Amino acid sequence: MVSTTVLLFDRGGRDVVSRVRTAAAQAVVDLLCGMPGVERVVVATGAPAAWERCPCTVQADPEEWHFGAQFTRFVQELRPSRLLYIASGAGLLFTPADWTRLLNADLPQPFAVLNNFYSTDLALLVPPAPIPDLLRDNPLGIRLWHLGYACYELPRSAATQLDIDTPGELQILALHPDLPARVKEELEEIPRARAQALLSALVDPEAEVVLVGRVSGHLLRFLDQEAACHFRVVSEERGMEASGRAERGAVVSLLGLWAEHTGPAELVRALSRLGDVVVWDIRVIMAHYGVWPPAEERYACDLLEAQKVSDPRLRELVQACAESSTPFLLGGHSLVSGGMYLAVELAWIGHDREPRFRPLAFPG
Q1: 317 lies in which domain range?
Q2: Which of 41, 63, 68, 335 is most buried, judging by how many CB atoms fall within 10 Å of its CB?
């Protein structure tokens, strides 16, 4: 049997997203520590006290944290032949069978198996390579491809695509009926009404859902096959972080230009007329404005807490969303990726999928 080292990065933190992320990561570690083929589990964290009772090796983060430097340090110190990298917040919905299939992957080397080639949160690397200059994990798949790795991608589903990154997807996750106890506990303060409105719309043939932001073609194909409702989609600035456009201030958003012309509140009123629910990755319009608020303000935007938002344009936008009779579910990229996969899977619980929404394949 092949033997794999697991390396999980958890930055810690006291806000609700960080707490849920850590609770999810601990559930993942508890499961992996008992699985055949796992040689050891190492957790690198900014909150080592939170991991004291977990059956793993815990390494405290240095004061000056850099993804590539940390990753490379562990690759060089641990010298594993196979490394499963996990960002906290990824892998929560994996079953033991999912982990077994991934851990047993044996392909011509060098190879990598990724949850998402373009925005990586979870990856099996055989053998792992040092990547000291990588600022974050999202472009890991692209970097490995440039290094000559054969890069394989797991089938896209809620399990492989969900990443806990904003309160947007937390509102959907809070509706999951079978979560680890601590994750469920940390989600108690998260509102659910807007996410429930989305789930109801997804199984309603007469409903229309508006999707805005970094929406992928993969997701649109999935929604076309699996959701009963209609969609209006504005997909823009895919890859703005991995490509460096956001960092360079080069993001230009169609909705951002619209908001500049009419004002944020009028943009929200227009979107509210287009559908029964609006799901909006507002990090794109933030980047268009050249504004990247601290995490607590970004999360306040997602929770429609306008009074906590300092930028006047974002505050006006969030206030208009909160006052709209159309439910607005706000978040980041993970909301319009893994969050939507999860929403569709949860929406069908207790509902029959009518055959007309899945045409039969022509047998000729």
Answers
A1: 193-347
A2: 335
